[in-house]
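glutaryl-CoA dehydrogenase (ETF)
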Amino acid sequence: MATRLDPLDLYDVRSLLTDEERLVQDSVGRFVDERVLPIIGDCFDQGRFPKELIPEIAGLGLLGATIPEEYGGAGMNGVSYGLICQELERGDSGLRSFASVQSSLCMYPIFAYGSEEQKKHYLPPMAAGEVIGCFGLTEPHGGSDPANMKTNAKKDGGDWVINGAKMWITNGNLAHIAIVWAQTEDGIQGFVVPTDTAGFKAQEIHKKMSLRASVTSALFFDNVRVPDSARLPNVKGLKGPLGCLTQARYGITWGPIGAAQACLKEVLDYTAQRILFGKPLASNQAVQLKLADMARRITTAQLLSLQLGRLKDAGKMQPTQVSLAKWNNCRMAIDIARQCRDILGGAGITTEHSAIRHALNLESVITYEGTETVHELVVGRELTGINAF
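Structure:
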């Protein structure tokens, strides 16, 4: 008899992983099953980030996972980092966003663009979860046009004085440091700004219907003075923050796979047990067609992200390839979450089930770090050679 396939991995993508990659996935998966899933629905209801989990997340080596061990990281490859994102988002997008920002948007720029002193000072405690970072790029009026940046930093003797505001900043009110991008006379530059610096203010954003188990803030800079040693010395211009976003978007291509798998598993269990008109809902042709389509789309996303990870680890990954996977996988996941919510019927509108929570979270994931339209246009530019922005 043929062995029955894993409904969440029809193409046995797991067999394409190394032993180390499978170990990473299994370790994070156990953490999500045992520590995240029992509380995350309540956290979402309460609008609370489960910061009590930070020491455990750090203890598993999930913060700065790809950073070399000499700076406190775990020295993992890109595929392992992707699997971390997939498993964390199977729990909740807010949890993956926390790790994504800490790893790709805060630790990465210090590692890639920082001085040796900055690396040694910040990276080990950040990997340990003792210093939390946030990433200050997006501005209230800027959105998809980061070049339209108003936040500025002006040289004053040996210091820099920063003025401006940033919006939609994950971890803002949790953070001990902010990676702040600002216009200078010499182009856009990055600064590591301690959040207890005079003139710095973080204001948490409430009334959210998405990423409720995550801290989202607005940042304000009123003559925030930092020494030149706070400046990231090894990059100038938009390539600095855009390089960080490429790293984070890579992880985001993996995360929604976990969210979609969570929704599909929930609906497979529900339709097997739900009796309607005298038979299990799973025996309905319309339901099976929907389930089959979900499996098809999840499989496609798995293979996209795995190949993207192999390209990344070979040093061949291009931003357009990241855009294609982010666009495809976020669209896949949000469509599946909505479809699963529909199959669950009235029960699907409560956080007793995960589909509505994932669907609402994915409204943010499909928007941040490049909207779906922006990534479509990135691919279009690659195909035609014409910039249509």
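The mean pLDDT is 96.
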